[in-house]
Amino acid sequence: MSEITLLSALTLAMARAMEEDENVVILGQDVAVNGGVFRATEGLLERFGNERVLDTPLAETMIAGMAVGMAAEGLRPVAEFQFMGFSYPAIDQLLNHGGRLRNRSRGRLTCPLVFRTPMGAGIHAPEHHSDSTEVMFAHIPGLRVVIPSSPARAYGLLLASIRDPDPVVFLEPTRLYRALREDVADDGEALPLDTCFTLRQGSDVTLVTWGAMVKETLAAADSLEADGISAEVVDVATLKPLDTETILASVEKTGRLVIIHEAAKTGGFGGEIAAQVAEHGLLHLQAPIGRVCGYDVVPPLPKLEDAFLPSEARIVEAAESAVAFA
Amino acid sequence: MTTLVKQGRIRVKRKTPGEVFECGVDADRTIATFAVRYLQHLDPSGQPVGPLPSFAEDAEVMTALYKSMVLTRTFDGRAISLQRTGQLGTYPSCLGQEAIGTGVASVMADDDVLLTTYREQAAHIWRGVTLEEIFQYWGGDERGSDFSGPRRDFPVCVTIAAHAVHAVGVASAMKLRHEPRVAVCVLGDGATSKGDFYEAVNLAGVWRLPVVFVINNNQWAISVPRHAQTAAETLAQKAIAGGFEGVQVDGNDIVAVRQAATDAIETARTGGGPGLIEALSYRMGDHTTADDAGRYRPKDEASNHQSKDPVARLRAFLDDRGWWSKEKEKTLIAKCKARVEEAKEAYLAIVPEETTAMFDHLYETLPPALAAQRNIAAGGDDE
Fold first, then answer.
1. CATH number of domain containing A29
2. Does the distance separating the beta carbons of B171 and A72 come in below 8 Å?
């Protein structure tokens, strides 16, 4: 075991998946010789050769559609889109084809692909490099939407995603790529998809989040503990299909829920979680559901970026007011 | 590459050893030209316009093509009448374009992959998709796309040109596995205006993929005519931007279509890279049964194209060779009608799937999150 970044954990997972299954291929812009713009695929070309690590022309629709075609032929393509803001042509392919192929051919053709893309703000990047639009993918039937929040979960969830027989959109929090290190055993053990991870046990309030906001949420839980409030932290990890059970069980225990996400509030995935809890767990709630989200604005350029990102202080405040609600 | 500007002249110096050259000519000059071949073997009256390829001298091959085209046309007419009587959903007729699908499919190998738009019933029929399955699909049942014959072929692509990028993916898989297989992608003229098409053509060229694009240029994309679609003189030349050849053929001449397809598919199969065939045809019917071409198409245009009909042309050719007769025609028509009626009866007798089927093929294993909704669809209680 060694302490590695989330980015290195992704590389390890892809290498492991390529080693165990010759059908796994990597494709995208700059993924081969350059190792990807963030170096997530560094070293894979040297190790697995240019028939399995493919630099493509600069054309996102083609990358997405090519992956659908490869997957239908039995390959397991792992396609990288350089930033979430550049991945939207892939929505056409996922919504109209990738997510439907199994269903519309009644299982004759399938689509075991993974689309990887960095998501989120916080790295002082140019325009279109800071989006958190996971909910647009989570609305699409037939897909899985997976977001890791630590090196170990990045390794285990990416392995699981590549092995999964259906299409997976794997969204990588850019802000966490190199922000923390963790011991990760390259043992080929996948983590379960469709399952939330309870990262911290607590009894007073449930904090539900995913991706980069896990960092601020865990920090907020520490602050709350200092104030005598015991917060449980749930990392959703797979937005679709959603593990409502774990969230409901936590709310049943704590009676209070705050949902935290970086994406814009209106129509954000937090709304779906709130609705599920309202439908199935209303009587466990002792306070209104709180949401700490990105504002309904265009993610600002770097000068205002910090003011846009939900802060630890906002999370603490929302948790405190949920606990204080009588 | 370094560029030196010197007294109004450009000198280009390539750094690679052995490739150093200097142009030293005027900056404004022609550096590339292109030509597009046009291929026709039978004129509209079925007469050869020159020497024929050898397959056209084979009575068995030519009558098989004819029989499949007539079956397609019989099926197509029946599908329209079923739609008109409420027994089929919206249906896109392929009337007048039968030579394209038949000619192309007839030279594909069984394990090649066909990816088409929704107007290539002729190709599907040749490839072994059953008439019953085609009825079933247009009748609103997903099982119609679970082809019993060509298991690797894609279901029809309804979103325009999206299957062009699937085709380069399929071809990439074939190439990476060093398989002597080819992906064949049939699109309409309107599809060549889409980015998906250009992106696919670009990749096909730069990776030298075993893929053949066939443009069924039937002159109309719903109400927009070919001349309003692009200023390009031919659609075939769009391949040239991708670095490979595009040829234009008389798409109502099955001999020309089949020959062009043979050349392109065999080139692709043997590592020679992609091909593109623009097959000139005409959409004799409406866009679909939900469309009325009378709203936008000159009144006599379709009837003026009758004289170029692909089925009549091949029939005339067969007649001239003495390979066909009124008697054979009568038997064939009767057989085709009987087959189509049999398929229609079988289609109408199909029991609809359980409502839960909409859940059961979405993922390999139904996620627990969908169990409650599936239960409601099955008639269970909403929680």
1. 3.40.50.970
2. no
Domain that holds residue A271: 197-324
Fold of domain B38-348:
Rossmann fold (3.40.50)
- Quote the minimal CA–CA distance from A252 to chain B in Å: 18
Q: How many CB atoms lie within 10 A of CB B332?
A: 17
Q: Is the pLDDT of residue B159 over 50?
A: yes
- Rounded mean pLDDT of B344-349? 98
Burial class for A270, CB neighbours closer than 10 Å (0-12, 13-18, 19+): buried
All structural domains of chain B with their residue ranges: 1-31, 38-348, 354-383
Distances in whole angstroms, Cα of residue A279 to Cα of each of A23, A244, A257, A275: 43, 11, 14, 6
Catalytic residues of B: 283, 287, 296
Whether A129 is catalytic is yes
pLDDT, tens digit, for every residue of A36-48? 999 999 999 999 9
Q: Give chain B's length.
A: 383
- Rg value, chain A, Cα: 19
Which residue in B143, B154, B165 is closest to A61 by CB distance? B165
Average pLDDT, chain B: 93
CB contact under 8 A, B172 and A66: yes
Cα separation of A240 and A246, whole Å? 14
Question: Which chain A residues are closer than 8 Å to B194 by Cβ?
Answer: none
Q: What is the pLDDT of residue A242?
A: 98
CB contact under 8 A, B169 and A74: no
User: Does the distance separating the beta carbons of B159 and A104 come in below 8 Å?
Assistant: no
